[in-house]
Write the structure tokens for this entry.
Amino acid sequence: MKLKPTNTSQILSVMQIITWIAYIGLCIKTGAILISFGVSFVNPEAAKNLYKGLDLDSLRQLNFGYYVCLVSFMVAILMMKAHVFYLVTRILSKITLANPFKIEVANILEKVSYVLFGTWIVGLLSNAYTSWLLKRTGEIFDSGATDNFLFMAGLVFIISQVFKRGVEIQSENELTV
């Protein structure tokens, strides 16, 4: 039995396009920072504008190790965010409204929650590092808010567990018919 396209399926299609755009955007941002970071090894002027005006030249001049560590945290967080969006695109490509509860979707949802939890941990470390840098250098470096990642990780984990239970109930129902 073929279902008519509904508003929900159209919304899921639009969401898939939006998540692909977000994924590609984060990959471009990460790549731009990595390339300008690599260029800054040879040409220190590149540290003045890593990405859209991000100026870490003073930190680079103060201590190259501090500079490498801060950029590493930034790149790690961006890569983890991009990975989350990639996993969401995979979910949106596998989910169907006729049969929404699939073990693949539940497993990917669980992976999303783990990556979000890891992003929260890396974000906490980054915040601690920038606080330490503030005391050491007197300069403020933005590390971004990370509290939302823990909330999202918990929420997605709960949804993944609901999906797993839905798969179990669905398979029990198929066996009884």
Helices lie at 7-42, 57-62, 64-94, 103-137, 147-176. The chain has five helices and no strands.
